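Archive maintenance. Older records in this collection stored only the sequence; we are now back-filling the structure field for every entry so that each record is complete. The fields below show one back-filled record exactly as it appears after the update. Entries are processed alphabetically, and YCII-related domain-containing protein is next in the queue.

ARCHIVE ENTRY
Title: YCII-related domain-containing protein
Organism field: Gordonia amarae NBRC 15530
Length field: 104
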Amino acid sequence: MTFLLVNTLRADASGDARTEFRDAHIAHVQRNVESGLVTSLSRLFDTDGTTLIGGHFLLDTDSAAAAQAFYEQDPYVREGIWESTLMAKAEIVTPGAPPPPAVS
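Back-filled structure field:
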């Protein structure tokens, strides 16, 4: 199963507050990429394309606890850089593949 995390930055975390913890955040993410937990990630920008507003992660795990642990161990979380996070199980749909069954 895949978990999706979508994080948004605090409005005042776009400058020094974020860059102070950036190296630790990147090291945390890289360790989890190497372990196979993180399978996809991106930075998210406002529609102007220049203002960083957050990021997303796809995590390869069946465990909500593992997804929560990844989130809680992120220096951006511990230091309050992320303002909000959506965490959900995600069903990855491949373009051109048959649609998944309907959900009631």
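Update note: The chain has a mean pLDDT of 92. Helices lie at 16-19, 22-34, 64-73, 75-78.
Entry marked complete.
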